[in-house]
Amino acid sequence: MRSNPFDLLFNPRGIVVAGASSHPGKFGFVALHNVLAGGFNGRVFATNPEQPTILGVETLASVDEVPQGAADLVMVCTPPQTCPDILRSAAERGIGAAFIASGGFRESGPEGTQAEERLIELAQSLDMVVAGPNGQGLISTPSRLAAQIVAPVPPPGPIAVASQSGNLVSAFMNYATQSGVGISRAVSAGNAAMVGVVDYLSWFSDDSFTKAMVAYVEGVDDGRRFAAAVRDAAEAKPVVLVKGGTTPRGAQAAASHTGALATDDRIFDGMVRQSGAVRAATIEEAYDAVAAFATQPLPAGPRTLVLSSAGGWGVITADAVSKSNLELIPLPADLEAAIDGLVPPRWSRGNPIDLAGGEGRDTIPQAINLVADHPEVDAVIYLGMGIQANTASHLRSGPFFESAELARICEYHERQDGRFAQAAAEASARTGKPILAATELAVTQPGNAGPATVAAEGRYCFPSADRAVRALHHLWWHARWRKRHLG
Amino acid sequence: MVAFSEFESKQLLANHGVEVSRDKLAQSAEEAVEAAAEIGGPVAVKLCGPSLSHKSERGLVRLGLDTPEGVHSAAEDLLALVTEEDGEVALLVSEMVGGHRELIAGVVHTEQFGAALMLGLGGVLAEAVGEAVFRLLPVSEADCRDMIDDLDFSALLAPLRGEPAVNRDALVATLMGLAQAGCEDGIEAIDVNPLVVRDGRPVAVDGLVVMSSP
Predict the structure, then answer these.
(1) What is the CATH number for A192?
(2) Which end of chain A is more exposed for a tag (fewer CB within 10 A), N or C?
(3) Does A266 touch chain B (CB under 8 A)?
(4) Residues of B in Cβ contact (< 8 Å) with A485
(5) Does B155 touch chain A (CB under 8 A)?
(6) Which ipTM did the prediction report?
């Protein structure tokens, strides 16, 4: 029995880079480089009729020389007119999947369109799955596979990406690299001649390495099929969608980029919501949302509590929560009494809980546990983490670090922020409630013990409270959809 | 494209559980007066026929008529405005449905996604605001509840100027009725505008059902 064709794409036994080049400026070089540098856990073949070795790989003159059954995937970086023969040879050698990076197909005009149609007919007759053409490649971290003509190679993780724009695949992977919440699979659909974004989402929804998925689309060919596939995927796992071309000018740009037809955005929006996916307005918001879905439990309700050791952020966050679908609950009396026992009386006595600098060594972990355990709290936004480690960083680089013997206090500060981040992750795991930590230090000082520990705990440190609130809004939206539609 | 008259359209919607204004057809000014008496209270008189889909633009609607004389003269005025192109035309006498809130709802046909249910803000500013939410047919009750929540102006559904809050169950029932009608064979589009909220319950005051050409 044949494997699922997507298994051949994402978990191939071996890969052939067809059209490997010794010229570092060529895609055929970069593709082979990336496969090798990524440490692919299968066999690697490269074809080049002239160069005997490239990057230490002994090349084959053509795909015909690939040992029978040794590879499942061919990555094609050669001109369009060579692709049919490569597919025929590949099928002959037992290769069931191709990623065609080459351009010169539909995106180049009527002749290219015909060539693309003929190529897909050929692939169908050969029983091969073809991704692309005109795509930048795919990533599959469980196989350590980086079959792409661009950077980066993201860390492994729970997020799957499918996109009609290769560059936006890179954008999501760049965010993943920066935040540490990594990627399971990522694919640039290219012209999506045979396999489109929703086909990938369908496969991701059954993929054990994927916890949540994000997709960028500009156009939809078959709206009903798209809607049904998104719904099936969203029932299995959270799906975040971003759509380009939502305004007349954007739609014009999309028409020239992917040939997408203009869609009434209100209809598209309704379709997304009905299918249980969440819609992000920007790429940044989409990554925030998918990272939240991938690393936090879903809230059971909208009742949100903000815990802060930074006054102004608490206020900003109260505004953001009020403008979302979340509920900034009044502080429950028993919780107020409990917090009162932890800090001096000047604290805020409301939601947001602003501890107002009255914290002792164990106050924050204790407060995190108190709010997370409270039955009237469904979700927590935690702010102010990293302040102590930031102070430590400044003391360390200042002129008095040695003379004033500041090492001990610096270590204490850093340890404390690490503990806070850990306490948030542990309380979330223990209670099954989302606890979203947010600080700009995640971006401005990623080595800070606060955000660094959040990442080490496998969670996403939000770069601002507003972005955390927006992500929590999406979590609750999807959780509510599950309650309403799946019972 | 073939349209039903307003009367037929609203009957069709009523058969699917949509609450519609009390309407009576009349062939003459005298019959209109009788119909108004049966309906009671102030009434609207409109021209009604399958080719009359832009009644307001042509001034073919008279509102708030509360005397037999008023109904009679409005009916005569309207009958005098009938043109040959209007085809088969009758007078439609309708109860006045009071409510501050006007919504629009219906079924639209889209090229990429097929038929979709629509709910939006009605009234004179509706077109400028363009606020509407959609779901693909068929829909579930949960979809209809989501639509109501999705409206940016959902605060308008709360108690307002002495009127109770909009009864969400009733609005869901209206949407489900429209959706059901929209799934019938041959129905291309449904436009209910306005859907007036009276005592918290949505009532279709004008409605248009368009059939796809056979």
Answers:
(1) 3.40.50.261
(2) N
(3) yes
(4) 140, 142-143
(5) no
(6) 0.90
Separation of alpha carbons A314 and A333, rounded Å: 19
CA–CA gap between residue A408 and residue B135 (Å, rounded): 61
CATH (domain of A2): 3.40.50.720
- The answer, for B213 touching chain A at a CB cutoff of 8 Å, is no
**pLDDT single digits (tens) A145-186:** 999 999 999 999 999 999 999 999 999 999 999 999 999 999
- Summarize pLDDT for A201-256 with one digit per residue, the tens: 999 999 999 999 999 999 888 899 999 999 999 999 999 999 998 888 888 888 87
Q: Are A101 and A91 in contact (CB under 8 A)?
A: no
Among candidate residues A42, A51, A55, A53, the one with its CA nearest the CA of residue A16: A42
Q: So what's the architecture of B101-211 in CATH?
A: 2-Layer Sandwich (3.30)
Question: Taking CA A160 as the corner, what is the angle to CA A154 and CA A165, rounded to the nearest 5 degrees?
Answer: 80
Q: What pLDDT, in 10s, does the model give residues A314-332?
A: 999 999 999 999 999 999 9
Q: How many CA atoms lie within 13 A of A412 on its CB side?
A: 9
Give residue A2's pLDDT. 53
pTM for this predicted structure: 0.94
Of B29, B18, B96, B97, nearest to B69 by C-alpha is B29
Among A144, A171, A205, the domain-final residue is: A144
Domain of residue A89, residue span: 1-144
